[in-house]
Write a structure and sequence with these properties.
156 residues, mainly alpha, 4 helices, 0% strand, membrane, transmembrane, Zinc-finger protein, DUF983
């Protein structure tokens, strides 16, 4: 398959649409909030993405997070835990049972804490880049001024 074929398969990008702030969308997703308004919740349950934002009506079901969040979480958690184990072993040399009693729960808790945040950030990234169905102008909710309940997020 040639590069030309791949470009033909890619969804057309509408340059007339205003750009979306990628970093703001990543931060909103990390906080598990709607990447569009920053008010509504992304999740209805632990990792179950809501179909639409309850605050601004942005469709969220277009996301394609798939296996990326677990891979990112495993990479981050692995680096933190291995670094912690090596430092603990070098400084204190505790018995193996102490290492297991400390690092196994830390590994599980860190993974469970990171997973929804990383997945939310990835959804925010996809929304900001108008990937998959997030780029359909018919469903574009970038103009929040028409919504009385949605207030723009304060600049930090």
């Amino acid at each position: 398959m040639s590069m030309h074929d791949l470009n033909q398969m890619a969804a057309p990008v509408d340059d007339s649409l205003p750009p979306r702030d990628v970093w703001q969308s990543l931060k909103r997703g990390w906080r598990q909030k709607c990447p569009c308004c920053g008010n509504g919740r992304i999740y209805g349950k632990f990792l179950k993405v809501n179909d639409v934002c309850s605050s601004c009506g942005t469709e969220l079901f277009h996301h394609r997070a798939d296996d990326a969040p677990p891979y990112f979480v495993m990479t981050i958690t692995g680096h933190v835990i291995v670094g912690g184990i090596l430092m603990t072993e070098k400084m204190f040399a505790p018995p193996v049972w102490v290492e297991l009693a400390v690092w196994l729960p830390v590994t599980v808790l860190l993974s469970l804490w990171l997973l929804p945040r990383v997945k939310g950030a990835l959804i925010g990234y996809q929304w900001a880049l108008r990937m998959h169905g997030f780029g359909n102008p018919a469903f574009d909710n970038d103009d929040l001024s028409r919504l009385p309940s949605a207030e723009p997020e304060a600049v930090k």
